Amino acid sequence: MQDSYRNPWLYGAGWAYLLLVVAALLLPVFYIVYISFNEFGFGARIYTFTFDWYRLIGADTILVASLKWTLALAGAAMITAVPMGLLAAKFYKRTRRKVAFVFLMLSPLFVPADIMGSALLVYFKNLNGIFEGLGDILGVSWFDDWFGLGFITALIGQIIYTVPYAFVLILITMSRYRDQQTEAARGCGATGWQAFWQVEFPQIRVGVFSSLAFVAILSFNEATRTALLKGGFDTFSNVLVAQMLNIGMSGESYAMAGTMTMIAILVIGTILVVTLATAGRAGRKALPKAEPVATAS
Amino acid sequence: MASHPLLRHLAGEDGIRRWAFYVPVAFMVLFFAVPVALTLVWSVFERTIFWMEPGFTLDAYVNFFTSARAENYLFSMIHSAVAVVVAFTIGFPVAVFVRRRVPTAAQHRVILLFIIPFMISELVRVFALRPVLGRNGLLNSLLMKIGITSEPITVILFSNLAVVIGDVVSFLPFMVFAGFLAMEAIERYVFEVCDDLGSNTLRTFKDVIVPLAAPGIFAGSVFIFVNSIGVALVPTILGGPGAVNAGLMVNQAIVALDFPLAMAISAIMMLTLLVLLFIGHRLFDLTKILQPIN
């Protein structure tokens, strides 16, 4: 059998297949973005480009409020899940029980959203009952509603969901970092914090910033866990689900889906461009430094 | 900087900073492992009108196994298995191609292409299939335009087929990622040896690639299988009235305020996952997937 390296047709077919799979995954999404700009919506024979459906979103107070809640949740998830992912990645390097630790950190990926959300819902309701009971015994109201469904419980659900991604992304970047550099920095008199901030962090920065963006997008897109744990407010995804199931697919629904898509593509596109540019720059920088070492050896 | 020795100790590397590394573990145990483990306990609690109370009853399990729910669960397992096979057939060759044929420096960048569909909301990706698969959708328009059919096909959307398509579209990137991660653990010279020995593509794939990449394939498959059974969004949006999976059953039980039943279904779901992971680990040693990270 002829190797595809030597057979440009086979090699080209491989690339064509790969791009076809990516296109098949993206085509439906781009199609709804296309529909979202049609004045007459889905199924119309005439296509007239308009921003009207997007203007409707801007004018809808419920949607604007839900967007604010969504952004607040995404922001809170970013500032909690990413440091936690970073700490987890550092812990992974130190611990001897790596398999058990990785199993714990990555297990949420394997637990479906509805199962996790419902388990947390019942857990928080029980915790809330326990804390309120404790408050009654002590005669104080301070413990009331600590775990009542609301922003904090929704945030905890989102942290559980997003931490595994932050952990993996940072761990991958960290795997290229040599611990001897920290030892060298400590040997030169740096404190643990200085060694981390001035030596290690610049080298894992890409992973940390990528996970910030990933967590933001994952949180922005999340619907199921949040729906079960949010209590009295609505997020953008929750409103979209409610619209789809109760009203049907309106032009506004398409525009909402389009908004979510464009935000995701914008953020991920930026990460990809920055990551690729950084990798290219690092490669160009590393080359002149590496050459003398190679010559000397 | 703290001046008191105790404060200095607490702020130092043996104090709070050291314990800070345990925060993720504590958080995951408290808000992930404990609630998931407790589903088993809550599943045997007694149901009250609006909530449940401590006790021991197997009513929720009897309810599950003696109603149509058990049958629906089995059906959703079959659909999920089909989704896994389809995702493997489509996604794994991508991982193999990237690892074998794309230059090493560019491999991760190519795999990053699959991040884009993965990071677009699952809700949007599933929702987007409606205008594609529907009666007046893109697929029917295309089929009629090229003359394959003269009438729109109406059996795709709101059917089990649509649920399988939705599951594949939702979770396919995971098969590519897990497959690629497993392929990364295989040294490239292995493929060169196969080529030098004149092994054809099919034989190399069957006898060399699949056994060596088995941990990744298994991890990707379990992910797709479990999520296909457990994510309610796909049958809710794409399935017909009879399309139900475990996630949807849990949601319905919660809406009906039957919390022990919801927890029993969750516990059965978690048990399914644990059994699969245990079998997979015994057969393929799933820790091998982490080799590239180590």
Q: What does this protein look like?
A:
The complex is a heterodimer of chains A (297) and B (294). Chain A is mostly helical and 297 residues long. Helices cover 79% and strands 0% of the residues of chain A. Chain A has helices spanning 8-36, 52-59, 61-94, 98-110, 113-138, 151-174, 179-187, 192-221, 224-229, 236-246, 251-296. Chain A starts with 7 loop residues before the first helix and ends with a helix. Mean pLDDT of chain A is 87; it is low at 293-297. Chain B has 294 residues and is an all-alpha fold. Chain B has a single domain, classed as MetI-like (MetI-like fold), CATH 1.10.3720. Helices cover 72% and strands 1% of the residues of chain B. Chain B contains 16 helices and 2 strands. Chain B has helices spanning 5-11, 16-20, 23-42, 59-65, 68-101, 104-112, 115-119, 122-127, 129-133, 138-145, 160-184, 188-196, 201-230, 233-238, 246-255, 259-284; strands spanning 46-47, 52-53. A two-stranded antiparallel ribbon of chain B has the order 1-2. In chain B, a hairpin with a 4-residue loop joins strand 1 and strand 2 (52-53). In chain B, helix 5 packs antiparallel against helix 13 (201-230), helix 11 packs across helix 13 and helix 15 packs antiparallel against helix 16. Chain B is globular, with a radius of gyration of 24 Å. The chains are: A mainly alpha (297), B mainly alpha (294).
Q: Could you tell me the radius of gyration of chain B in angstroms? A: 24 Å
Any low-confidence stretches of chain B, pLDDT <50, length ≥5? none
Mean pLDDT of chain A: 87
What's the total helix number of chain A? Answer: 11
- Give the oligomeric state of the chains in this entry, treating copies of one chain as homo and distinct chains as hetero: heterodimer
Order of helices and strands of chain A: HHHHHHHHHHH
- Note the gap between the termini of chain B: 37 Å
Order of helices and strands of chain B: HHHEEHHHHHHHHHHHHH
Shape of chain B: globular
Largest interface: A-B, 87 and 88 residues
What is the CATH topology assignment of chain A? MetI-like fold
Architecture per CATH nomenclature, i.e. the level-2 architecture of chain A:
Orthogonal Bundle
What structural class should be given to the helix and strand makeup of chain B?
mainly alpha
Radius of gyration based on Cα positions of chain A:
24 Å
The proportion of residues in beta strands of chain A is under 5%
CATH superfamily placement of chain A? MetI-like
Task: Pick out the low-confidence regions of chain A.
Answer: 293-297
Q: What is the overall number of helices of chain B?
A: 16
